[in-house]
Amino acid sequence: MNLKDATFRVVNAVHGLVVRVSRGRVAGRLGGMPVVVLETVGRRSGETRRTMLTAPVVDGETVVLVASYGGDSRHPAWYHNLLASPEAEIRDRNRTVAVCAREVHGAEKDRLWAIADAGNPVYADYRARAGRDIPILVLDRIGMRDRGNADSHHRQEFGL
Fold it and tell me: What total of structural domains would you count in the chain?
């Protein structure tokens, strides 16, 4: 494991702890984007993997993730995990939503890049540095499971 990967793991763990303890009130947004916890199955280990990610596009029941890995030349592990097993969960505050991921291409990808770039110009820098085609994944809702309090506000349509 290189220094960047080790740093990412530590920052991800600390960020996750802060968001979990504060129930999303602290560090629940970064760069103007909502933060979600993506839970995947490790493609090699079969173990549950949790990653804190920003969602540059949230459109109703659909969440969009950019596999930029901060402009690294490699795809992030969560991207490979979703390719191997596209069903996952995302969490925001007290909601857990079952999703199915799909990678987008062509006009759909161009449209989503335009939206992501308008909301956070750092993505253009990431694309310039990465030296690779950065994937965009759409996570479509396939179900919802309330966590904790079952009040009516937790039963609303998923929206960040």
Answer: 1
Give the closest residue to 37 by CA, choosing from 74, 62, 12.
Answer: 12
Rounded to an integer, the average pLDDT of 75-103 is 91
Query: Is position 153 within any domain?
Result: no
Q: Is 73 helix (H, G, I), strand (E, B) or coil?
A: coil
Amino acid in position 25: R
Average pLDDT, the chain: 80
Q: How many CB atoms lie within 10 A of CB 45?
A: 9
CA distance 56 to 33: 6
Tokens of 115: 């939206």
Instruction: Please list, in sequence order, all residues whose beta carbon lies within 8 angstroms of the beta carbon of residue 75, skipping any fewer than 6 positions away.
Output: 67, 69, 132, 135
Residue 155 lies in a domain: no
For residue 103, CA distances in Å to 22, 73, 138 come to: 32, 18, 6
For residues 23 and 91, which has the higher predicted lDDT (pLDDT)?
91
**Which residue matches tokens 């793991």?**
9
- Torsion of the alpha carbons at 16, 56, 156 and 41, rounded to the nearest 10: -50
